[in-house]
Amino acid sequence: VPVGYVVDLTAPHLWVNCETNYKSSTFYEPKCGSAQCKVANTSFCHTCPIAARPFCHANTCGRLLENPVTHQSTIGEVAQDVIALRSTDGSNPSHLVRVPNFLFTCSPSAP
Q1: b/e burial code for range 50-70 (CB count within 10 A of at least 16 → b)
Q2: What are the residue boundaries of the Xylanase inhibitor N-terminal domain, all occurrences included (predicted)?
């Protein structure tokens, strides 16, 4: 399902609100200690509280996220999925480029 995003090129990683209409058949949440978590340079193992939010996955890699505009923080989970980006020559859009195993962070909301 096509979804538009604004990408902060100064951020160390991309984060997405996965709780709101995020549907994907290729979504994967890497477990703590996995190669993906090491690449993402995570600092802790994420656990879900008893009254967990719908998209919470236990034993996944956690990241502290900060909104660069509001400076509010939240905790997110490292995730992996396929993304497709439209290539361009700078003037004209071209074909879609598929990027498998793309790592990003799921946030419960935009902090």
Answers
A1: eeeeebbbeebbbbebeeeee
A2: 2-108
In a domain? residue 55 = yes
pLDDT digits (tens, 9 = 90+) for 62-99: 888 887 778 888 888 899 999 888 888 888 888 899 99
Structural domains counted in the chain: 1
Which amino acid belongs to residue 57? H
CATH number for the domain spanning 64: value is: 2.40.70.10
What ranges in the chain are assigned the alpha helix state H?
A: 35-39
Distance CA 88, CA 100 (A): 19
pTM: 0.77
